[in-house]
Specification:
This protein has about 350 residues and is α/β, with parallel strands linked by helices. About 45% of the residues lie in helices and about 15% in strands. It has a seven-stranded mixed β-sheet, sandwiched between helices. Strands 3-5-4 form a three-stranded antiparallel β-sheet. Helix 3 packs across helix 4.
């Protein structure tokens, strides 16, 4: 401690372990937001490509505020993800892992930021009715598109390879921006597909990208609540049914009974379905001090929303009860117990 004109001055570098630990918590929170923002404006991708970034030049070229862009990377430097000298930034030791998992940060801050901001308001039991929380559906879909690629996509492709028939009709439940459905249609040129999602913004992206790929005449994207689907002419010919990253929503209305009811409804709505590929998170049991990236935010976020996260054993028991036979299970070495169940 020093004295400066009678004022007590504490040198930050001399502060003890608890002070540094608390500062690390605070700085990490700021860095999480900064990482998501740097990805969304394109700065993170450019740095990953070129292995350096001049934040002032990037800001000027993209019509952004220079000091603010530099501030984003100062936040990343504070937690060791990058090294910074003025406006010149280069990767730190953990940068590539942060880049690989950037969509998790976007899910947390941009997609679910309002939910976490309002934690005190959603904790009282009396408040937890109706639409008691809000998230940004478009931002969640934006993040989930890459989360899917980082986690589920490789196992999904293996599961598709194992489907022993060529489907002529495909439906993807909770399709988001339609990447999964388009992949199935590319593999099966004779098939048509329907993507169903409750949020319209990602569906607009899905339609545009299907058009760009020349798949518009084979792919239809419709707004619908997967939990409350009713039979429709286009659904009757669906032979392959896929559903990823939303199966836990089946449990939200009435727990296990609600999940069984939704799975039975899918049997009725898609009477020709020969195979169901259901990919979703399952509740983990990681020790509190060994939690990987995303697990804590995902599980706490769903607790706050009142959305039950079933275990793998619970999934394996409700599917047969609802009329689906589990024929294979693909465990994914991810962060939130990701699993693909194959049923018929």
């Amino acid at each position: 401690m020093d004295q400066l004109d009678g004022v007590r001055v504490v040198d930050v570098e001399r502060r003890g372990g608890p002070e540094r630990a608390v500062a690390a918590v605070y700085n990490s929170a700021v860095a999480a937001w900064a990482l998501a923002a740097a990805w969304e404006v394109g700065a993170l991708d450019e740095m990953h490509r070129h292995r350096r970034l001049d934040t002032a030049e990037f800001a000027a070229r993209n019509g952004l505020d220079g000091p603010s862009v530099t501030g984003l990377f100062r936040a990343l430097s504070a937690v060791g993800l990058v090294r910074r000298e003025g406006t010149e930034v280069t990767p730190g030791e953990a940068f590539d892992e942060a880049f690989r998992t950037k969509s998790f940060f976007h899910w947390l801050t941009r997609g679910s930021g309002e939910l976490f901001r309002d934690i005190p308001a959603v904790l009282p039991v009396a408040a937890r009715t109706g639409d008691f929380y809000r998230r940004d559906a478009a931002a969640v879909a934006y993040a989930c598109r890459e989360i899917d690629e980082v986690t589920y996509a490789p196992a999904f492709r293996r599961a598709l390879d194992e489907v022993d028939f060529a489907p002529t009709g495909v439906a993807d439940l909770g399709c988001g921006s339609g990447a999964r459905l388009r992949e199935v249609l590319r593999r099966h040129p004779g098939a048509t597909g329907i993507g169903i999602d409750i949020a319209e913004p990602p569906l607009r992206v899905a339609r545009a990208e299907a058009t760009a790929e020349g798949l518009a005449e084979r792919a239809e994207f419709v707004t619908g609540d997967v939990l409350r689907l009713e039979p429709a002419p286009g659904y009757a010919a669906v032979e392959l049914l896929t559903c990823f990253m939303m199966g836990h929503d089946f449990w939200q209305d009435d727990g296990r009974a609600g999940a069984v009811a939704t799975l039975r409804r899918l049997r009725a709505v898609f009477p020709a379905a020969r195979r169901l590929l259901l990919g979703d998170a399952t509740r983990t049991d990681h020790p509190d001090d060994r939690l990987p990236v995303f697990t804590l935010g995902f599980e706490l976020g769903h607790d706050l929303m009142g959305t039950y996260l079933p275990t793998l054993a619970e999934w394996e028991s409700v599917l047969p009860e609802a009329g689906w036979k589990v024929v294979d299970v693909h465990r994914i070495d991810g962060t939130v117990g990701e699993t693909i169940l194959v049923a018929e």
